[in-house]
Design brief:
Length: about 210
């Protein structure tokens, strides 16, 4: 059966909260800078389709795909209706930790990518204050219902498929507060943590 575990309504509701907006702003900043330096013809974003993480890409064909509002191409990520070796860039914003079949999604991504293609992944870090909140609190709603994946574990999965990880970064260092004012008071933690304890970020990118 196709893998469509993510509840798009829960995601949309969460992205309208202070927590969601805080994470989204940092994800958008990362992807804007990352995709501008990747060249090719076809780029694909899987998930979070209400937000265009390909907007800074120079590729002529940019497609937002998923089983949610805003998707130009409706699909489930573990059965991609695309030809093998046909895509130059794939973005996976928090797709793997909310899937019942993350390995199959990565296999599909490897299949559709050209030989020198690129994949950009964002994921919640289990070894962070956000990961602690998931462990200690109720595992309900977005993002707490997800299965947070350790960066080392994800790197192992990628290596088995022949991917080479060329860079990584952490972000979202403030605690998972629910109020904008509380998150604003922790703004200093972004620069301080990136310098002194980068791996504490609630989100990582590969």
């Amino acid at each position: 059966m196709p893998d469509c575990k993510v509840n798009a309504e829960n995601l949309s509701d969460w992205l309208n909260t202070a927590q969601g907006r805080y994470v989204l702003s940092r994800e958008q900043d990362y992807f804007d800078r990352a995709v501008s330096d990747i060249f090719g013809f076809n780029a694909l974003q899987l998930g979070w389709c209400e937000h265009d993480f390909l907007r800074a890409s120079r590729m002529p064909l940019r497609t937002l795909a998923g089983d949610e509002n805003g998707a130009a191409l409706r699909l489930c990520a573990d059965e991609l209706p695309l030809a093998s070796e046909s895509v130059d860039l794939v973005i996976l914003p928090h797709v793997l930790e909310f899937s019942e079949h993350p390995h199959q999604i990565l296999r599909e991504v490897e299949r559709i990518l050209i030989a020198e293609g690129s994949v950009l992944i964002s994921a919640f870090n289990p070894y962070s204050l956000w990961g602690a909140r998931r462990v200690l609190g109720a595992k309900q709603g977005y993002p707490w219902a997800g299965e947070f994946i350790a960066q080392r574990r994800l790197k192992d999965w990628l290596a088995l498929l022949g991917f080479v990880v060329v860079s990584g970064r952490y972000a979202v260092h403030a605690p998972p507060f629910n109020l904008s004012s509380s998150l604003a008071r922790c703004k200093f933690m972004e620069t301080a943590s990136e310098r002194w304890w980068a791996v504490s970020g609630g989100v990582y990118f590969l």
